[in-house]
Amino acid sequence: MTHTGRFRLWRGDAEGGALTDFDVEVNDGEVVLDVIHRIQATQAPDLAVRWNCKAGKCGSCSAEIDGRPRLMCMTRMSQFAPQDVVTVTPMRTFPVIRDLVTDVSFNYAKAREVPAFTPPADLAPGEYRMAQADVQRSQEFRKCIECFLCQDVCHVVRDHEENKPAFAGPRFLMRIAELELHPLDVADRVPAAQDEHGLGLCNITKCCTDVCPEGIKITDNALIPMKERVADRRYDPVVWLGRTIRRRRG
Amino acid sequence: MTETERHDYDVLVIGAGGAGLRAAIEARERGLRTAIVCKSLFGKAHTVMAEGGCAAAMGNANSRDSWQVHFRDTMRGGKFLNSWRMAELHAKEAPDRVWELESWGALFDRTADGRISQRNFGGHTYPRLAHVGDRTGLELIRTLQQRIVALQQADHAETGDYEARLRVFAECTVTELLTDASTGAVAGAFGYWRESGRFVVFSAPAVVLATGGIGKSFQVTSNSWEYTGDGQALAMRAGASLVDMEFVQFHPTGMVWPPSVKGILVTEGVRGDGGVLKNSDGERFMFGYVPDVFTGQYAQSEDEADRWYEDQENNRRTPDLLPRDEVARAINTEVKEGRGSEHGGVYLDIASRMPAAEIQRRLPSMYHQFKELADVDITAEAMEVGPTCHYVMGGIAVDPDTGASTLPGLYAAGECAGGMHGSNRLGGNSLSDLLVFGRRAGLGAAGYVAGLASRPPVDEAGVDAAAAMALAPFDPPSGDLPGENPYALHAELQQAMNDLVGIIRTEAEMTAALDRLDELRTRVRDVAVEGHRQYNPGWHLALDLRNMLMVGEAVASSALRRTESRGGHTREDYPALDPQWRHRVLVTRRAPDDPDPVVPRVVVEEAERDPMRPDLLELFDLPELEKYYTAPELVTHPGGEPA
Amino acid sequence: MTTAARGVAARGVDTPGRAQVPARRLRSDRWWLPPAATAAGLLAFVVYGGVRAFQQQYFFADERYLTPFYSPCVSLGCASEPGAAHFGMFLPDHPLIPYAALSLPFLLGFRLTCYYYRKAYYRSIWIAPAACAVPEPHATYTGETRFPLILQNAHRYFFYVALLVSLVNTYDAIVAFRHPTDGFVVGVGNLVLLVNVALLWLYTVSCHSCRHVMGGRLTHFSKHPVRYWLWTRISALNTRHMLFAWVTLGTLVLTDLYVMLVARGTITDLRLIG
Ligand SMILES: Cc1cc2nc3c(=O)[nH]c(=O)nc-3n(C[C@H](O)[C@H](O)[C@H](O)COP(=O)(O)OP(=O)(O)OC[C@H]3O[C@@H](n4cnc5c(N)ncnc54)[C@H](O)[C@@H]3O)c2cc1C
Ligand code: SF4
Ligand code: SF4
Ligand code: FES
Ligand code: FES
Known about the structure:
The complex is a heterotrimer of chains A (250), B (643) and C (274). Chain A is of the alpha+beta class. Chain A has 10 helices and 7 strands. In chain A, helix 3 packs antiparallel against helix 6 (170-181) and helix 6 packs across helix 9 (218-234). Chain A is elongated. The longest helix of chain B is centred in the last third of the chain and has 25 residues, at 537-561. In chain B, 60% of the residues are buried. Chain B has helices spanning 18-29, 67-77, 84-103, 136-159, 230-238, 269-272, 302-310, 324-336, 356-362, 364-374, 429-450, 460-471, 486-500, 507-524, 537-561, 579-582, 614-617, 622-628, and strands at 5-8, 11-14, 34-38, 54-55, 118-119, 129-130, 166-170, 172-179, 186-193, 199-203, 206-209, 242-243, 248-255, 276-278, 346-349, 383-392, 395-396, 410-412, 504-505, 570-571, 584-590, 602-608. Chain B has 4 domains: 5-247 and 393-461, FAD/NAD(P)-binding domain, CATH 3.50.50.60; 251-389, Succinate dehydrogenase/fumarate reductase flavoprotein, catalytic domain (Flavocytochrome C3, Chain A, domain 1), CATH 3.90.700.10; 478-583, Methane Monooxygenase Hydroxylase, Chain G, domain 1; 613-643, no CATH class. In chain B, the strands form 6 sheets. Chain B has a 5-stranded parallel β-sheet with strand order 7-3-2-11-18. In chain B, strands 1-10-9-8 form a 4-stranded mixed β-sheet. Chain B has a 4-stranded antiparallel β-sheet with strand order 17-12-21-22. The termini of chain B are far apart. By secondary structure, chain C is mainly α. Chain C has one domain (29-273). Helices cover 47% and strands 5% of the residues of chain C. Chain C has a two-stranded antiparallel ribbon. Chain C has a two-stranded antiparallel sheet with strand order 3-4. In chain C, strands 5-6 form a two-stranded antiparallel ribbon. The N and C termini of chain C lie far apart (56 Å). In chain C, 39% of the residues are buried. The chains are: A alpha+beta (250), B alpha/beta (643), C mainly alpha (274). The interface between A and B is large, with 62 and 69 residues. The complex binds flavin-adenine dinucleotide, iron/sulfur cluster (2 copies) and FE2/S2 (inorganic) cluster (2 copies). One FE2/S2 (inorganic) cluster (FES) binds at residues 114-116, 155, 159, 207-209, 241 of chain C.
């Protein structure tokens, strides 16, 4: 079964751009990325789009489809009615490079700010012993394909550019949680999570979890447990009260 | 050419997959200033797609496993054509490389006693694949990526600059290697930023190629757009040789439906964990396809095969787990003989073999992939699968110990290097190959740089020529005529390779393929692209086409030359294994007398594989070797003498 | 958490450098429905609960049913319903002091600082954000980093108190089986109280802080098998925490309504046993 689909793609660059209409053939079983490729091959050979695996494994093809952050290769055309206009824009939290491609260097900069895995000094490779029960929480977070859709949707930076320096974003707060829960990581990551990576800016509204194509329960399993660990350290009410009063005065 | 950016490094690593990252880590740890260049974003290289696992004889799941057993399996899988030295190093060093990943933060699935769990895979005698569910490649690349970040953090702490000694140039494509005009040694590389289209010149005395495979030359493939054979073509154009290019692995189980996902991989882990292949009659047909060389090693009844999953000591493994070449051919035959599934594949059934929850736990991304992309619930119904172009065994000819190519200063590792896997790669042996030989290539390059008296200068004429070549598609010779569309040309190339140089090959078809390639080679000059240089995929493809054509010719010419069937190379007109071909490899080089700069022609020559070291040869029983070797080659085997 | 919108300088998705789209938002689904429904639900509960908490009437039925809104009944005013106060009467009887002034503030605090309710009212009342990828109206945003929202971190202490209150509610539900004259009886009201308290327990123990206290703060589960087992159970319940949050709002209202109607004599409690 084939029909003519109506697409509206954002084309342009950092200087400006606009939504452009395309009528294009759509076949049974296709995903949005297939249709974008057809537009590229037949109507707009220089249409910029980033992709690699076309199987939801690499996290390259992130974009916003009808205003929702999604992987283009995992969004099936069958979820739209044939007469629907499908609007595709680049991610709107990062600077645009061209057409559907954005500059995601923010994320790589944040990745560098998270101190690396720190194993016990006296443990030789090959001698690591870890129970499955102890690794499975971190393993969930390591399913992350770094599509950065969670970073894109998080209102802390999406709606507030000025928060970017102070906020690592869900992906990297989750990375901190991953290391914090790693059975053999010896570094203390809790104070920095709050002070340097902006855990307190997250208001647990769960959009990151909603968009994660890997189905990682970012908020419930990474962010909230980290908030609880911070509370362990910081928000013993008595200590906390003293500090707040001091800060209010200052 | 005013806007060309220049960088100086000690070691330039092209490719940020497992092999490239591991090489870069090694070079940096040896104190060299190292750059990594890759076509896509950092951490997205093809290696992320690897699913099943990473083979290493750690013996965690079965203590009888050892490097010797792994070595034997690898040689058998490759039908004894492998570079035995590579297979030896690989089997010996893989466990250390895996353990090292753990010390960098990798979290593999665990055994009950807390060690790394290992799973069964085709051709491996014991459960041997370290894995994380079915996303092992992701774990591997993320761990290496994070190790690189860790090294950058160390440099930052010391110098205040994250990129002082190790820098990643992401979304930057290398289009040509640069050499020293006087010696021919490698001096650097020329490339462009995908984002801006601006040119970059790297000068570096040592270059490590780790660019991966060639699958995008085929229509049905599990590979991504990156796999355009760049490393292989760059190496040939610069003067290095390739080996074994006729051996292309078709993975037996790719998705076949819907058309838009045709070729996407269904991991071998499905079969390793109990899934079985069936034809449209519901018959487990693999029992009828155990080849002579493997008789006695595989189960002969369904009962025995099923018992093997529980008790591997007393039962033989299921023929569903024969090496990939055998399974792919069997599926091909079933479909041709009319016992295929609705959409031209066969059935892969795991639903009837274990509870739904178990399937979801063991194979989460397969479950997800079928659900999302094909509306198939693999816990309730069988998958439809068929062969897909997956891996190239051949590649740049390298020295096993150092990864040095035949060109001074040029190193190669990973899928773009050849020899290790012989005529057919075992599943799981690639990820370990990346780690073992990635590290060795990094070491080799570091050693080479340390021993250099002076840095080879970049040949500026080469830079200008590369720049002109890169810009050609904006100004094709066809002038005002509509030029060739790169997408259309690519589709034609894929079709030709798929139809004519696919799983089953004949002389007539390959000659036809070479004619088609010839025609495309002429047309590629007229490729024209629209728009400008900022992130222009049409232009990027136009440049990749040169490499695909050159590599396509290498595959087709080598395949035409090898008049036997072995591993990933099956000739309908020469269906048998020929012991006279076992010790001969085919080497492909740029034709020395062809000055064409766009797509130079290639020549294929025969070379002898070194005879296996006697202590390694003794690891095999004589009767087994006799199936592959000629009698004179075996006189030294102790089993040959009367006891 | 925010200050009033300042000026109209391009911000959020309109920040220069990002892909510029004139449309205010591109989501074409009914994204406003969930926050609107949430706001309506929360508001309805607050109004109902507020009215009832200060009504100081119809909180105890002769069958010994005490509504959770008045438990524990510790005001001197509770004397109006003999048998309602199990834990003494000591708070002054004043129209602005609810009879259960000992528990209600903590229960309110428990729900206000609950990770789920926070999400619910940040989205639906505070519009930060109303729905994913829908621009929020605030000019600045500091999340939970400052006073007063930094107080959310005290959630676990509310949780501890809530545990005690759940015990009290359980006690209420159990003593209600002993009729002042007829001995052990089971009426519909008993079942109502019992279901309510069971659901309150589910809501309370499925709390994220509970999950943390039980095992979440451990790094090596394998060394603490009992706590690990508890953690896995609570984690399973925790995935339904939102469900329990809403269901208990409903059962609280229904339970209270039932007790009120029986207390007023509008309906009679159906005796099932005894
Ligand atoms: C779907 C799938 C599943 C697989 N599963 C397994 C498995 O379970 N076990 C196993 O052992 N193997 C598996 N393999 C095979 C294995 O993943 C690959 O062979 C291996 O990852 C190749 O790694 P590499 O480091 O050689 O190259 P890659 O990871 O492919 O990296 C190539 C790099 O080179 C860069 N590059 C290429 N050309 C250029 C250029 N011109 N300029 C700059 N950079 C360039 C690319 O951007 C990329 O970064 C699988 C393969 C596929 C496709
Ligand atoms: S839950 Fe926190 S991190 Fe996730 S999107 Fe919401 S505010 Fe951002
Ligand atoms: S956590 Fe999920 S949404 Fe975020 S980057 Fe990883 S895979 Fe993408
Ligand atoms: S292309 Fe890899 S995730 Fe979509
Ligand atoms: S009560 Fe909701 S999280 Fe604690």
